[in-house]
Amino acid sequence: MNLEDLPSADYFSFEELLSDAERDKLAQLRDFLDKEVAPEAGNWWNQDRFPYELLPKLGGLGLSTPVQQGYGHLFAGMVIAEMTRCDTSIATFFMVHHDLFVDALHRFGSAEQQDRLLDDAMNLRTTGAFALTEPDHGSDVAGGMATTATRDGDSWILNGAKRWIGNGTFCDYMLMWAADADTGEIRGFILDATLPGVHRTKIENKIALRTVQNADIVLDGVRVDESDRFAGIFSFDDTKHLLRASRIQVGWQAVGQQLAAFDIARRYAVERYQFGKPLAGFQLIQEQLVQMLGNAVASMSMMTRVAQLQQADYGSPEEPGRVDMPQAALAKSYTSARMRETVALGRGILGGNGIVTDYGMAKVFSDAEAIYTYEGSREINTLIAGRDITGVSAII
User: Fold this and answer.
1) How high does pLDDT run on average in the chain?
2) Which domains, ranges and CATH numbers included, belong to the chain?
């Protein structure tokens, strides 16, 4: 049986909603991923190594912050889904750099900061990170940020620690969040990661996203010039613009994980013979594959609608947003729960081969655990949506 003759995992043809130019660009991305990423992604993951040599080629795709370049939100989401379908770690690197650091330059950078940094960052000649989470503050960082920034003439002195900072071991710059020691307001800084007093340590022994280089960051009297304070960031509310968008993108990652799991499980079920016939010939296997596909289609349906609502918001900052944090939270909570079920079904279909990275499913299964947790756990996102629909907070 030729797998190419079987229906795509895009079972309801959502890609038809893209423009011709967007479909062509998505095809270019797929070709790049097939040639440059897929053959080595398992090795990078096994070796716990980030492929720095890939960055010039990845930057050459011209996919940085696609909405800022005139592409639609649906296309931007499908880019993340497609990257994740090939390798979750590369997609996560891309999101942290482009959807958090570069987008922050677009949204909150001064004209001088954009002139100085934006072109290199968009083309991956420099890399960025997003330093918000702390050792003792994850979901509650809004009210408990311990990293401080103290004004000292024309500069600021930063002290504190951050944890789980993706790209943190090697990035050139970080968007560093800190509380103003005098006012308590949250500030954002363009932190040159090579400054004296910045200490970076790689987080070891991960079972997910092993290619991503997460770091513990310690700031010990780091002096940052006032010109490197993000001009447009004045409070923690400003983080919500970035976190809402990245939370939605993680919903698209949950879609990509399910597409990957379905691809691997279906191929295995068609090609693997047991009891004299392919696994795909057994009713229980077909039922599981259909459940996986249904989860993926349901998740893609939700994310497609979110993208449509984002598109309606875009360019109209004076209008109330139709996709606020509760909607983003529901999307992330729902899709990550469906993803967890989908990858577990896929791992089961591969049996013992599902726990070794040679077959691809073990990596997909493990990486799903990171998606399930970051950008707010399923539980926290559920409570954000629950607060919105009841008017009662169960968080605090």
Assistant:
1) 94
2) 3-122 (1.10.540.10), 128-228 (2.40.110.10), 237-390 (1.20.140.10)
Query: For residue 240, which phi and psi values (nearest 5 degrees)?
Result: -65, -30
Give whole-number Cα distances, 176 to 104, 187, 239, in Å.
Answer: 11, 8, 11
The pLDDT value recorded for residue 315 is 53
Give pLDDT tens digits for 2-60.
Answer: 888 899 999 999 999 999 999 999 999 999 999 999 999 999 999 999 999 999 999 99
CA–CA separation, 361 vs 84, rounded Å? 13
Q: Confidence band (pLDDT; 50, 70, 90) for 155?
A: very high
Single pTM value for the model: 0.94
| H helix or E strand, kind and range, residue 308 | helix 283-313
Helices and strands, number each (H, E), in the chain:
13, 9
What dihedral angle (degrees, nearest 10) is formed by the CA atoms of 78, 82, 88, 90? Answer: -100
Q: How far, in Å, CA of 71 to CA of 57, rounded?
A: 20
Q: Locate 136 and state its tokens.
A: 């003792």
The answer to whether the beta carbons of residues 343 and 257 sit under 8 Å apart is yes
**325 DSSP β-pair partners:** none
